[in-house]
């Protein structure tokens, strides 16, 4: 029986985000890309819940991996389970991997930048993610990787301006979910996977997590972990199979 892996992308990322990761996955893992619908967060979580419920009903172990914005959505989904807004079968085997995200308020610099982007979108036609914005999210060792830069820009262009406005606004002002993880750690297997130099993360926040929540940091990347270090994520996913 294959483990079901539900993949939630980050802002302006489509299924191509996972190509490198998928090519390295164990054959015992069956992955599904979750398109973030243009809906309020509560309805996004309900849509995600239905996807996970279907996998649980099939009797499969379920891995949930959220990257960046997707990591916040995955964390919010955990909150909905812990707080009783949504309910999974008590026998469900759910393991959660949160990638390149600390589910708390965004850094003030990032919030200011997002507000400027939203304002600029309203003032003039959106021309897509700039090279400087893309490089801000990549380690310097990838600044000359044109294929990686162009992929990020291509995903952004494909999803378009309406998707960008929605994704920047619907979870811009984020709730600090630290308390959720204090309770969730006793119910679910949870791992944070991140770079050790990501400007969008709050590393002090990691230090407050209960010991049952594992935090794994890697080098040779910055924010775009699925593109820069897919092997790091795959190792965590593959290893989790053997603890089933």
Automatic annotation (TrEMBL):
UniProt entry keywords in alphabetical sequence: Hydrolase
Keyword Hydrolase part of the UniProt annotation: yes
InterPro entries: AB_hydrolase_1, AB_hydrolase_fold
Domain of life of the native organism: Bacteria
Sequence ranges assigned to domain AB hydrolase-1 in this UniProt record: 5-236
Protein name: Alpha/beta fold hydrolase
GO molecular function per UniProt: hydrolase activity
UniProt feature coiled coil, ranges: none
Pfam families xref list: Abhydrolase_6
């Amino acid at each position: 029986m294959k483990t079901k892996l539900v993949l939630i992308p980050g802002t302006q990322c489509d299924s191509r985000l996972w190509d490198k990761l998928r090519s390295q996955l164990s054959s015992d893992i069956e992955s599904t890309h979750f398109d973030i619908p243009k809906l309020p967060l509560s309805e996004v979580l309900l849509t995600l819940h239905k996807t996970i419920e279907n996998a649980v009903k099939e009797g499969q172990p379920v891995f949930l991996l959220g990257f960046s914005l997707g990591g916040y959505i995955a964390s919010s989904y955990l909150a909905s389970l812990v707080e009783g807004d949504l309910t999974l079968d008590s026998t469900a085997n759910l393991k959660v991997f949160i990638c390149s995200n600390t589910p708390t308020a965004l850094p003030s610099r990032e919030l200011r930048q997002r507000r400027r982007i939203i304002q600029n979108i309203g003032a003039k036609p959106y021309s897509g993610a700039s090279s400087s914005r893309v490089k801000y999210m990549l380690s310097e060792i990838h600044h000359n990787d044109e294929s990686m830069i162009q992929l990020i820009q291509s995903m952004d262009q494909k999803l378009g301006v309406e998707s960008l406005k929605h994704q920047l606004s619907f979870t811009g002002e984020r709730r600090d979910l630290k308390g959720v993880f204090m309770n969730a750690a006793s119910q679910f297997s949870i791992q944070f996977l991140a770079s050790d130099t990501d400007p969008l993360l709050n590393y002090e926040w990691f230090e407050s997590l209960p010991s049952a929540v594992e935090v794994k940091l890697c080098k040779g990347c910055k924010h775009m972990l699925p593109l820069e270090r897919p092997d790091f994520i795959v190792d965590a996913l593959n290893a989790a199979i053997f603890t089933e």
